[in-house]
Amino acid sequence: MQHEEGISTVRQDDVLKAPFWINRNFALLATGQVISNIGDFVYSMTLMVWVFSLTKSAGAVSGVLLAQYVPMFMLGPLAGVFVDRWNRRTVMLVADAVRTLIALLPLLAPNELRLPAIYVSVFLITSFGRFFMPAKSGVLQAIVSGKELMQASSISQTLSAGALIIGPALSAPLYFSVGPLAALVVNAASYLVSALCIFFIRAPRAALHPYAEREGEASGISVRSVLGELGAGLKFVVSSRVLLALIVMILVAMLGAGALNALDVVFVSKNLHAAPALYGLLNSVVGVGMLVGTLLAALLARRISATQLLTGSMFLLGVGIFIYALQTWYVIALVLAFFMFMPQGGLQVGFGPLFMRSTPPEMMGRAQAMLDVSSSGASLISIGAAGYLGQYLPISWIFSGSALLIVLAGLYGWFALRERRTVPQVAS
């Protein structure tokens, strides 16, 4: 794998030497994404509380997450093929424009159809997101050089953690003072702002649309050609030691994380004995911990490899979640959440550079899709199991099992992603 051999050529000393915002294009992309992320967190937190308030059912809450993960599993592979064929910037613009309208769909439904409308809205938003996310990875690869990927990942994760602080903190006050209308409007507006930022990104056409440069825009689309490109992407991922190890690691971790996402609001209510309105505050504290963890990860990235940062963060996150699962007092859980979820800040800082340095631009869409399919498939299993087991088992048991899976993912990644060292041959 010639492309992989270049992974270790980027020195840690190169990290963070560029200006903070790296360049104008990255500043636009990062700004649009942090605003979009704030809207997403306001929207998702509101939906979880809204659905739980309407139904008082863990199964109904799990349904929201199922509506998120099913499109990832169904559309991921095909979306990757077409993202590699199309102009990535155009894909992002169209996806954001359509999601601006879809976010308002639940407001148009009558009361008796409100829950199905929520599920449909989440399903469609996530469906267009399947095209947006690999396209974003391709654009990021086009506007940021290889030695600046660690810095870009650090900035992106820092902004994401900031969005996690702001979004949930806004969601509960908006929901209980104004109602769900505010969250839906905020999310729609955030997609619109993201689209405007993407519109002003400028990059060489060949970087944004590598397929057109390689094959010519006149190339037709047929079932055979799509399946052929899908097979080529799968073959590339399976033959890549780094990408395959990353996918297996994320798959195992998401078998645990899906249950956490599905039952967290129920855990706050039943185990921590807190009102649903306090769910957003807990997530904001998690966001503060992630922000501090991301800043620490950016400093550690100068001294340790991306592999060590990723796998160590995964292991410590699993340990933290295990401790969190045993809590019964909201205030103690609130304090512990800050420390226990700090390692989450290091995950993307370590993951992003490993993934992008291992993937050539013309394969980015399909490689991202394979990753999404693996993680979403594992999440679907985890969410379905959580929704069922939550009716019979204590949630603390389910969370503890999830934490152990995340610990195992970190241990697996530690050994599977170790750099192979060649033994010099001694001349006879």
What is the CATH topology?
Growth Hormone, Chain: A
CA-CA gap between termini: 29 Å
- Which structural category fits the helices and strands? mainly alpha
Rg over CA atoms, rounded to whole Å, is 21 Å
Detail the poorly predicted runs.
1-18, 421-428
Largest sheet report: none
Count of spatially separate domains: 1
Order of helices and strands: HHHHHHHHHHHHHHHHHH
Strand count:
0
CATH class membership: Mainly Alpha
| Helical content (DSSP H or I, runs of 4+) | over 70%
Main attributes of the structure:
about 425 residues; mainly alpha; Growth Hormone, Chain: A; globular; disordered C terminus
What does this structure look like?
The protein has helices at 2-5, 24-55, 58-85, 88-102, 105-108, 114-143, 149-177, 180-199, 205-208, 210-215, 223-239, 241-270, 279-300, 306-325, 330-340, 344-357, 364-389, 395-416. With 428 residues, the protein is mainly α. It has a single domain, classed as Growth Hormone, Chain: A (Up-down Bundle), CATH 1.20.1250.20. Helix 7 (149-177) runs antiparallel to helix 13 and helix 12 (241-270) runs antiparallel to helix 18.
What is this entry, summarized?
The protein has 428 residues and is mostly helical. It contains 18 helices and no strands. It has a single domain (2-201, 232-416), classed as MFS general substrate transporter like domains (Growth Hormone, Chain: A, Up-down Bundle).
